[in-house]
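Appendix C: a fully annotated inverse folding record. The material below is reproduced so that readers can follow the format used throughout the book. The structure is listed first as tokens, followed by the designed sequence.
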């Protein structure tokens, strides 16, 4: 009798463990969706609710944010370009959670004429995003992107030096200058 009870108890624990894991996966998907919704609607409070205070954002080997304050500065800069993020796919496996994201904004539209599509590995700590690492670009044309950026930068340097440095200025003011540079260049050409 005690053997049957032990087997029943082990089976029950296994089923509860599977259900808890499944619930975590669903919660993680919802957190990811809420994060990108906050980016799309300009609600940093929604974004902040989804991440740890020590969030790390990186693109390939480059770390671009190491705190929620860094994330906020990035958010302010990026919001000026009116980004639209679309989650194409969320895959969860033993090696992590992977999200395929499409992003278009005024800056990206100018630099490559189409959405930037990339793959992000997302890690969680107690149901908050602790790390987001862009691991692959699925749709980016650096052969177009870099020459357009460089041509724009050189043209601005020669024709509107008051805006020079906009490419490296990751503040909202720098983003405004970037938009102004694009508008001036496009109206001149």
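Designed amino acids, in order:
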């Amino acid at each position: 009798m005690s053997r049957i009870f032990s087997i029943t108890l082990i089976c029950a624990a296994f089923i509860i463990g599977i259900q808890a894991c499944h619930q975590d996966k669903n919660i993680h998907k919802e957190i990811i969706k809420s994060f990108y919704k906050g980016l799309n609607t300009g609600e940093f409070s929604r974004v902040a609710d989804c991440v740890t205070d020590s969030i790390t954002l990186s693109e390939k080997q480059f770390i671009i944010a190491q705190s929620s304050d860094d994330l906020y500065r990035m958010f302010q800069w990026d919001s000026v370009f009116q980004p639209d993020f679309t989650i194409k796919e969320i895959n969860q496996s033993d090696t992590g959670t992977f999200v395929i994201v499409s992003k278009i904004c005024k800056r990206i539209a100018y630099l490559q004429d189409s959405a930037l599509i990339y793959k992000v590995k997302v890690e969680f700590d107690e149901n908050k995003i602790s790390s987001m690492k862009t691991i692959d670009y699925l749709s980016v044309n650096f052969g177009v992107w870099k020459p357009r950026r460089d041509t724009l930068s050189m043209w601005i340097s020669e024709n509107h030096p008051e805006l020079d440095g906009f490419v490296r200025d990751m503040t909202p003011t720098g983003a405004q200058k970037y938009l102004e540079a694009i508008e001036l260049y496009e109206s001149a050409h």
